[in-house]
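Provenance and format

Records in this collection were gathered into a single text stream. Each protein contributes a sequence line and a token line. The two records reproduced below are adjacent in the stream.
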Amino acid sequence: VAIVSLPVGILVAFIVMYWQGLNANIMSLGGIAIAVGAMIDGAIVLIENMHKH
């Protein structure tokens, strides 16, 4: 689940930006980078929890 959700989340972000006519400027890419970091952190917690149990 974690492996699939990261690329899909990034793809959805760019699709929504395209639909709304937004450019991929520094602020947009920075926001996406922060969101990807949060998604990766959540995926790491999920995988560590699976290994514990």
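Adjacent record:
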Amino acid sequence: MKNKMKKNFFKYFFLFFLISCSKSETEEELIADFVNNVKENNDVYIEGNLSWEDAVKLALKYNKILKATIEERDIARGEKIEASSEFFPKVLSSFNYSHLDKSPSVFVNDVEIPLGKIDNYSVDLTVKQPLFYGGSIYFKNLIASLGQNIADEKIIKQIQTTIFETLQAYFDLLLAKKVYLVKKRSFFASKRHLKDVKDKIENDVASQYDLLRAKVDLSNFKGEFINADNVVKLKRSNLYKILGVSQESKIILKDSLKYKKMEMTLEKAVDIAFKNRPDLKEKKLFVDVKKEQVNIAISKFFPKFDFVYSNKWGRPDPHSSTIDSWGRQWSIALSMNWPIFEGLKKRGNLIKEKAHLEKSRYLLQDMKQQIILELRKSIFSLENADYLVKSQKLDLKRAKEALKLVQYGYKEGINTEIEVTDAISATTKSKILYYQALYQHEMAKLYLNFSLGLLNPKFISGEKR
């Protein structure tokens, strides 16, 4: 499966690396290529070994939320075309036919003089070209262009979110599988212990209480084992949903939870995040949009000038209603539309747009502070997870040694059945806590990279993990 997938994905990774930086004309074309390829793909059935890299590749190709977000690009393109249409002339045409009950006429000295015909035909063509609208048409086009850039940043943000959610779901399933295996081993260890108790009863070394306690413990371990199995099924289903593949797929996770130390200072993290976070770039573009909306509000204080050309073909002749033949009439005009007073509407609109601009600037500053806070939390979480992995690894080693001693002591008649059960439970708990610590460390690194805006092809290739 991995060889089959590589053929389609290498150019996606190169593309994403480019669109994560400032865009040029070539990068715009690559984004469009990525969009077209994603749109062509539907649900697929997969089976076999699945690495976390392949999981990310599948999600980038089939994830439904990502596909929905990609539609933002066409929406923005449509809005750009719509805004550009304001530069071009508007051509209107109409056709009219009317039949009168009586031809119009006038009496002069008791003499009826006809002024028209019963049947009237006309064909009108009007061309209206905007000349000057206070700059509003230009500003609207700037907003539409900014909208395209915002759409691209939204796509990049969703790509990063998809990578984050995919890896989170992958690690969730890894942890669930580890917990399941621990519970399974504990269940079978409890079964073996029950057999030992039964053997001791036959030799009059153990009591009925020991037997009942062993059966209760076995029942409890079985319940935990079944619950762990159900959690695995749910986590697997969630992974399939994020990947956008069939729920009937059958995969085996190829990777495991690993510990790899990662270090990052707050100063370096802030610098990286401010350069790479797509949501921050989107917020900056939103401020630019608000600036242009203020300019549009100002443009409403200026008059609007249009060039108008009209052409009319009619019967009777448009120049003389008494001539029953087709004739033509044309005119050109320069029109000005300048509302002098609208109840302070324009003034109120300008105040509103300026307030929106200031609001967007405050929100931009707040986002920067929020990013710094997220980075600080991520670094602290990484430090805590790093310590937790080391301490839980040591605790697990101690728990295993204690279990061996207690099991040996039980066979020699030194330790009791309760002590064996407690040792099994302690070892089970230590194993789970250790795997949870590994999971938390993986998630801490993942969230830090997400907060930095670095979930890109370099991360997928394993350089950042």
